[in-house]
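Data availability (excerpt). The following record was deposited with the supplementary files.
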Amino acid sequence: MQEHETVVISVGGSLIVPDAIDSLFLTSFKNLIERQIAFHGRRFIIIAGGGRTARRYQDAAASVTELDPEDLDWMGIHATRLNGHLLRTIFRDVAYPVIITNPDEISDVPRDAHLVVAAGYRPGASTELRSVQIAVHCGATKLMNLSNIDYVYTEDPRRNPDATKIEDITWMDFLKLIPSEWNPGLSSPFDPVAARTAMGHRIEVTIVNGAKIDEIEKYLNDEPFIGTKIHP
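Predicted structure:
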């Protein structure tokens, strides 16, 4: 990966708040990103997911009254913004002071802002789609999706022990493995709408277990890594 390259990273809420807030992950992630900025001059745009925080609010509300998808979505969006504020706060020494919610706003951020934090925008889309849209607006060709899995599999390995891991796959083949539509709370390695958008703009997405900080760094340093690369 080239120095001074812009890297978009979607950080799953399951990493930030797996149950309680994971301070160890946040410390390791902060150290990694600041090393990459200091030694390689890279620019990072980090989008926070909602994770367990979003689901707790959604489940609580649904237990009291009937909700429509937009209600669920707004709670998820605000959870991403809360997690985004957490990230911006821990990166306060290097982060652009304003959290981006509308993907179009990334075009107004000075290019010398080495780290920008983003979060959810409007109902009807995941933060993964927003991360792809931001990549399109800033001309980034590589996007990391950090989650709590090591690889994408041919099937859910929790249901089928014979499912095989995938290290490298094209967008066309990847789209055959996932649902065709997105909805709040969808369980999929990557949002299908985001996947089609990334394919259309020839963006490479790499799915890495964010808990394995060393693997993130290996990918950034163009070294062999544990994870799945999805490409045109």
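Summary of structural features: The first strand starts at residue 6 and ends at 11.
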